[in-house]
Write a structure and sequence with these properties.
By secondary structure, the chain is of the alpha/beta class. Helix content is about 30%, strand content about 35%. The protein has a seven-stranded mixed β-sheet, sandwiched between helices.
Amino acid sequence: MTKQEIRAISVAKLQLEDDSILIDVGAGTGTIGIESATYLRNGKVFAIEKEEKGIETLKENIKKFNLDNIEVIVGRAPEVIPQINYNRMFIGGSTGSMKNILEHFMKYANIDGRIVINSITLETLSESTKLLKELNFKNIEVVNISVSRGKKVGPYTMMYGENPIFIVTANKEEQE
């Protein structure tokens, strides 16, 4: 599950518009897709997830937030990603299919398409930035975020670090 602080930055980096169509790849429990859906009065989220345990929680969370603009698609990306025009994609997990997912984006995303990839490993960071360059994405940016949380230890508060996250953003074309 994407932590609150990382989720806030990731959703902001998507630069959602009222009518954005977002593909949430590796949706997990739905934190990114669900928060995004709350901003999309005229848009829609397609949440792609292959893990059964994630799908159950995802559906429960959609019901909890009473959202009707998010559709769960069960299966592995990119095979189950709809072949429709869309303008935003979030990748929280690719299960080794990063290149094929990015190629789908380049084929189906609108000219103003924007992608956000969250990575906790250096290998995924390296692979995704290399592929973004190879596939001629524009305005590639990498941000590293570290979050610590205070925890009471006797009369003191100690800070415990969460895993640092790399947030990679890129556009299909140059943005004005």
